[in-house]
Design brief:
Blueprint lengths: L1 H18 L20 E3 L6 E6 L9 E6 L6 E8 L2 E2 L3 E26 L2 E6 L6 E15 L7 E9 L3 E11 L2 E2 L5 E2 L5 H4 L16 H20 L1 H4 L5 H14 L3 H14 L17 E3 L14 H12 L9 E3 L5 E3 L13 H18 L10 H13 L4 H13 L13 H7 L2 E2 L2 E6 L2 E7 L6 H4 L5 E5 L2 E2 H8 L8 H13 L1 E2 L3 E8 L2 E8 L1 E2 L15 E4 L3 E4 L9 H7 L5 E5 L12 H5 L4 E8 L8 E3 L3 E3 L10 E6 L6 H10 L4 E5 L9 E6 L3 E6 L2 E3 L15 E2 L4 H5 L4 H12 L3
Parallel strand pairs: 26-27, 27-31, 31-32, 32-36
Antiparallel strand pairs: 1-4, 2-3, 3-10, 4-9, 5-12, 6-7, 6-8, 6-9, 6-10, 10-11, 13-29, 14-15, 16-21, 16-24, 17-18, 18-19, 19-20, 19-22, 22-23, 25-26, 28-29, 28-30, 28-35, 33-34
Helix pairs in contact: 3-5, 3-8, 3-9, 5-6, 6-7, 8-9, 8-10, 9-10, 13-14
Length: 743
C-alpha cells in the first residue's frame, strides 16, 4: 500500500511538472536547429544588426545575447520573446541585465509590450533612460500596469537603437511580484467573431479586373457591409467576424451581372444574421442640435436594391441598439475607439479581397464616425466607387500602400496620414535627403537652414535661395505630382509637409538643383544625406519657455512651457506692456484653463464640440459650449498677441481658441493646420496605422475650425527678403502692435 501511495504521489508530481508552463524567459534553452534561444525572435536574420549568443561575455548562466550594428539602413535591432496567454494580476515587471559598448547614436534598453485584441495597450522601451556609451553589466527593470481583462499577449526583449553593441542576460518576468511561471493563467473570453478564423490568412478571392458593373456591385456591397457593421445589433454583440463574412459573399457580388442579382445576393447574406428586434423610435426624438446626419449611399434610394431588401435594411436601421459595440467604443472625450480590428500585419501585400476590405473598412469608419465628413470636399460615396479600381488592381505592395495613402489624404485631415513604418513608402519618398532645409515662402521653395555643415552646403546654397527645379523637374510640377499624397487639412499645411516628406528626397545619391538667387539662375549639384540618419536639428532646444523682450514685453513659447511656470511668469510679466504667445509649436502642457485664466478676466464660452453616437451611427450632435477664464486679482490686464501659422496644429489651435476668447487677445499670422479634436487610431490590412480627428471642434457661434484653422485678426506671412535678412517678421509685427497700443 505504501509503495502504491508513493507511486501515485510520484505520478501526480510528474503530471504537475508536465503541466507547468515551460517559459524560456531566461533564454537558456537552445533550439537545436537554429542554435539560438528557443522561441526567441527579432532581428535574427537582419543584414543590419547581428544577433548572436556570447558564451564568453555573460552575467549568469551559459551565455548572453548580443546585438551589434553592422549595416546602415535599419534604425534598430531587437530580440523578442512572446507569451500568448493571459494572467491574473494588476502589474507586470521585466528585469534584465545590460552591458553596452560604444552605443553613441541611439540607446539600448529592455522593452515590453502588452497587446490586447486590437493592438498595444501598454508599452515601454526605456527610451527615456537614455542608456548610451560603454558600461559594464547593470540591472534594469520595466514596470507596466497589467489589465488582465484586456491582455492577450506579452512581448519582452532587448533592443539597440542606432550604432554600437549591447549584451542582454538574465531576463526575469514578474506579475504582482511573483515569477510568471508561478502565476495562474486566466481563461481568455473569446467572442464568436474571434473564433471565426476561416479567412485569417487569405480571402480566397483571386485577382480580377474591374468594369462598370463590378464597380457598381462593389460600391453597393461596400455600403451594405459598412451599414450592417455599425447598425446591426448581432454584429455589435460580436456574434460575427464581419471581415470573414465579407469574404463569404464577395465572390458572388463580383460575379453579379445586374442589380437584381446583386440585390438577391445581399439579401441572402442579411437573412443569415440574427434578426433584429422590432423598431424603436426612441432615438428619433432628439433634443440636441444635429450637426451631421447619416448618409447611407444607395441603400435606401430605391434605384439599386429590391424593395424587399430595402425594407429589411430599414428594419435594421430602426432597430434598438445598445450602449456598447464590438467594433467601436467612445473614449473619455467621446471620440471613437475602433476596437477588434485585425491589422493583418503579416500581409505586406494583401490579396485582392483584403485590399477591398481595407477600402471598405476605412470608408465605413469615415462614413459613420468622422465628424468632418461634410467638409471633406468630395462626395464620400463617389470616393468609394472611384477608389475601387486602384485597390483591386494594385499590382504590388507599393501600389497598395500608395492607394491607401491617397484615400487617407482625400479626407483632408492633418491628423490623418500613414503613421506606421513602411519600407515601400520610404522608398517612394526617397532614401536620401537634401542637406538643407527649405519651406514655401511667397509660394516659392526657399532655403531656410541646414541639416549639416558638410558637402560645402553653406557655400552652394544660401539662405533665401529659391529652388526652381530638382533633378530636372520644376518644383511646381513636383508639387502637383505629390499633392494627392500630402495628407493635410489645407493647402498651407500641405506645403508645410511636402518639402520634408517628398520634394527634398530622392533615391539617387546625388541631386541636381536649379536655383534662383537674386534673379540669377544657377545650377548646383550635391550629395544627399541618409534620410534616416541625417542630423536632426530641433529649434525648440534653443528656446526658453518664457522671457522678457526689450525689457517690457513678455514672451511665452508653449512648446517649452509648463503650468508650474505660471507663478514665475506672473511675477516677471507684472509690469510689462504686453505678452506675445508664440504658438508656432505644439504645447507641452495643457494651457486653456490655467494660462487662460491668467490672461482672460471673465468667464465665457470658447468652444463647442460635435460627437457621434451608437443609436444612429453617422449622426453628430453639438455639445454644450465649454467656458474658460475667471475674474481674479492676478489677471493680466495688458494686451496679448498670439502668433500662429501652419505649424500650429490640434492642441495649439484649441489653445489659441481658448485664449482669443479674451477681449485682450489678438491673433496674427497665417492659416493654421486645421486639424482639431482628440485623435482616433485606425488599423488597416498590411499593418497600416492611421488616425483621424475624432470629435468636431467649433467656435461657440458654430464657426468651423477643421480645414479652415483658427480665426486670425491680422493675416501675415514671412517674406523672402525677411528670410534673407534673418528676421522673424511675425514676431516683429507682434512687438510693433504692442508698442503702438495704449498701456
Amino acid at each position: 500500500m505504501k509503495a502504491y501511495l508513493t507511486l501515485c504521489f510520484l505520478c501526480c508530481w510528474l503530471l504537475s511538472c508536465a503541466q507547468k508552463p515551460a517559459y524560456n524567459i531566461d533564454a537558456e534553452e537552445i533550439n537545436p536547429t537554429t542554435k539560438m534561444p528557443k522561441d526567441w525572435g527579432g532581428s535574427l536574420s537582419s543584414k543590419e544588426y547581428n544577433v548572436k549568443l556570447d558564451n564568453l561575455i555573460k552575467h549568469t548562466g551559459k551565455h548572453s545575447i548580443s546585438i551589434e550594428k553592422i549595416g546602415r539602413k535599419e534604425q534598430f535591432g531587437t530580440i523578442t520573446y512572446a507569451i500568448s496567454k493571459a494572467f491574473e494580476g494588476k502589474t507586470i515587471q521585466l528585469k534584465g541585465y545590460i552591458k553596452t559598448e560604444q552605443v553613441d547614436s541611439g540607446f539600448a534598453g529592455l522593452w515590453m509590450r502588452i497587446d490586447g485584441r486590437e493592438g498595444s495597450i501598454a508599452f515601454d522601451n526605456m527610451a527615456k533612460k537614455n542608456i548610451m556609451g560603454t558600461h559594464d553589466w547593470k540591472s534594469y527593470s520595466i514596470d507596466l500596469p497589467y489589465d488582465s481583462e484586456a491582455a492577450r499577449k506579452i512581448y519582452i526583449g532587448g533592443l539597440l537603437v542606432g550604432k554600437g553593441k549591447v549584451w542582454f542576460d538574465n531576463f526575469q518576468l514578474f506579475i504582482d511580484g511573483k515569477p510568471i511561471d508561478e502565476v495562474l493563467t486566466k481563461e481568455i473570453s473569446i467572442s464568436k467573431a474571434e473564433k471565426d478564423t476561416a479567412f485569417s490568412t487569405s480571402s480566397r478571392i483571386q485577382p480580377f479586373k474591374t468594369n462598370p458593373q463590378i464597380i457598381n456591385n462593389l460600391t453597393v456591397a461596400g455600403q451594405f457591409w459598412a451599414f450592417l457593421k455599425y447598425y446591426h445589433p448581432a454584429i455589435a454583440k460580436g456574434d460575427y467576424n464581419w471581415d470573414a463574412e465579407l469574404f463569404r459573399f464577395l465572390p458572388q457580388v463580383i460575379k453579379a451581372t445586374n442589380n437584381s442579382e446583386l440585390s438577391n445576393i445581399l439579401e441572402t447574406q442579411l437573412d443569415k444574421l440574427h434578426p433584429p428586434s422590432p423598431a424603436d423610435n426612441s432615438g428619433t426624438n432628439i433634443s440636441k442640435v444635429i450637426a451631421l446626419k447619416p448618409d447611407y449611399g444607395q441603400l435606401f434610394s430605391g434605384a439599386v436594391l429590391s424593395k424587399s431588401l430595402t425594407n429589411k435594411l430599414a428594419a435594421v436601421k430602426n432597430s434598438p441598439r445598445g450602449i456598447s459595440h464590438y467594433y467601436v467604443s467612445f473614449m473619455g472625450a467621446n471620440n471613437p475607439k475602433f476596437e477588434n480590428e485585425e491589422p493583418y500585419a503579416k500581409m505586406a501585400y494583401p490579396d485582392a479581397g483584403y485590399r477591398l476590405l481595407s477600402l471598405f473598412r476605412y470608408w465605413a469608419m469615415i462614413n459613420y464616425f468622422f465628424p468632418y465628413k461634410d467638409v471633406i470636399g468630395t462626395d464620400w460615396n463617389k470616393a468609394l466607387s472611384d477608389r475601387i479600381p486602384e485597390f483591386v488592381e494594385a499590382k504590388d505592395e507599393q501600389e497598395y500602400v500608395l492607394a491607401t495613402l491617397k484615400m487617407i489624404a482625400s479626407i483632408h485631415d492633418t491628423h490623418a496620414n500613414i503613421w506606421s513604418s513602411s519600407e515601400v513608402l520610404n522608398q517612394f519618398r526617397g532614401k536620401y535627403k537634401l542637406p538643407f532645409k527649405a519651406e514655401f515662402i511667397e509660394n516659392k521653395l526657399v532655403v531656410t537652414g541646414y541639416y549639416a555643415d558638410t558637402l560645402n552646403v553653406k557655400q552652394k546654397f544660401l539662405i533665401g535661395d529659391v529652388v526652381s527645379s530638382i533633378d530636372g523637374k520644376a518644383v511646381e510640377t513636383l508639387v502637383k505630382q505629390y499633392l494627392p499624397y500630402a495628407a493635410a487639412s489645407n493647402y498651407d499645411t500641405q506645403l508645410r509637409d511636402l518639402p520634408n516628406s517628398f520634394l527634398l528626397r530622392g533615391n539617387a545619391g546625388v541631386f541636381t538643383l536649379g536655383i534662383n538667387r537674386g534673379g540669377k539662375a544657377i545650377k548646383e549639384t550635391t550629395a544627399g544625406l541618409d534620410a534616416f540618419y541625417y542630423p536632426k536639428s530641433n529649434p525648440e532646444t534653443e528656446k526658453k519657455a518664457f522671457k522678457l523682450l526689450d525689457q517690457n514685453i513678455g514672451y511665452v513659447y508653449p512648446g517649452k512651457y509648463k503650468n508650474t511656470d505660471l507663478p514665475a511668469i506672473q511675477e516677471l510679466f507684472r509690469n510689462t506692456k504686453g505678452i506675445i504667445i508664440d504658438m508656432r509649436c505644439y504645447p507641452s502642457d495643457f494651457m486653456p484653463f490655467t494660462f487662460g485664466e491668467y490672461i482672460k478676466p471673465l468667464k465665457t464660452p470658447f468652444v463647442k464640440f460635435t460627437v457621434g453616437e451608437f443609436s444612429q451611427p453617422g449622426r453628430f450632435t453639438y455639445s454644450e459650449p465649454v467656458s474658460n477664464g475667471a475674474v481674479k486679482s492676478t489677471n493680466y490686464r495688458g494686451k496679448v498677441i498670439v502668433i500662429v501659422n501652419s505649424t500650429s496644429q490640434s492642441q495649439a489651435e484649441y489653445t489659441t481658441m481658448a485664449f482669443q476668447s479674451s477681449p485682450n487677445v489678438t491673433v496674427i499670422g497665417s492659416t493654421t493646420a486645421g486639424a482639431d479634436g482628440n485623435v482616433s487610431q485606425i488599423l488597416l490590412p498590411g499593418g497600416i496605422s492611421t488616425m483621424i480627428s475624432g470629435i468636431g471642434v467649433f467656435y461657440p457661434d458654430g464657426t468651423p475650425t477643421q480645414r479652415a484653422g483658427v480665426k486670425i485678426d491680422h493675416f501675415l506671412k514671412p517674406t523672402i527678403k525677411g528670410t534673407i535678412e534673418g528676421r522673424d517678421e511675425l514676431l516683429e509685427k507682434a512687438k510693433e502692435i504692442l508698442k503702438n497700443s495704449p498701456k
